[in-house]
Design goal:
Elements (H helix, E strand, L loop, with lengths): L8 E6 L4 E4 L1 H8 L10 H13 E3 L10 E3 L2 E4 L2 E9 L11 E9 L7 H8 L3 H11 L4 H8 L3 H15 L4 H14 L1
Antiparallel strand pairs: 1-2, 1-7, 3-4, 5-6, 6-7
Helix pairs in contact: 3-4, 4-6, 5-6, 6-7
Length: 185
């Protein structure tokens, strides 16, 4: 039985964020407004777009090395896409590039507010927005702290500030308030 084509974009990247594999929707999303079929060197273009669109620099860590993370959403034309990244480990003794990251680009529901719009509406800082994004992904304070390279107590402080700004008293209240804000927009 043939599978229906997906409208979600998928990228498989090596540890240096070079493209190993992708599907057609990912190329269309990242190459917009150019037709992906007209691009002569898609790997080079996608590598550049991954670095400029999908990655953002985080604060430098104690070893002065830049830590990179994937953004949680992107815009392509008038459409918004959530960007979900996954670390991949692959044991291969061959000299072929080993996948390190899988990236899924899914179209957001129409009417969804971007993180920037939510930040503006509730006067959230960039770090508070980042904390909320991780919270909405279901991560614990410890997991959020590890991703943001901060202590769990700092995560809790960010969440308390967010709760005050959103006028809620629980973590689930944050999600509920964001859901309601997205629907009412």
């Amino acid at each position: 039985m043939p599978m229906a084509p997906s409208s979600s974009g998928f990228l498989l990247l090596d540890a240096k964020f070079n493209l190993i594999a992708s599907n057609q929707p990912a190329l269309q999303i990242l190459c917009y407004p150019t037709d992906a079929n007209r691009i002569r060197q898609p790997r080079a273009l996608i590598a550049e777009r991954v670095r400029t669109i999908l990655l953002h620099q985080q604060e430098q860590d104690r070893n002065s090395e830049d830590r990179k993370a994937f953004v949680s959403e992107i815009s392509s034309g008038k459409r918004c896409y959530s960007c979900k990244s996954f670390q991949v480990s692959y044991n291969n003794e061959h000299s072929t590039p080993q996948p390190a990251f899988a990236v899924l680009l899914e179209r957001s529901d129409s009417g969804t507010m971007t993180t920037g719009e939510l930040a503006q509406r509730f006067s959230l800082t960039q770090r508070e927005c980042e904390t909320v994004d991780y919270l909405l992904q279901g991560l614990t304070s410890k997991e959020i702290a590890a991703r943001m390279n901060i202590s769990p107590n700092t995560v809790k402080a960010f969440l308390r500030l967010v709760m005050v700004k959103m006028k809620v008293s629980t973590r689930s209240g944050i999600a509920g308030k964001l859901s309601g804000a997205r629907r009412s927009n």
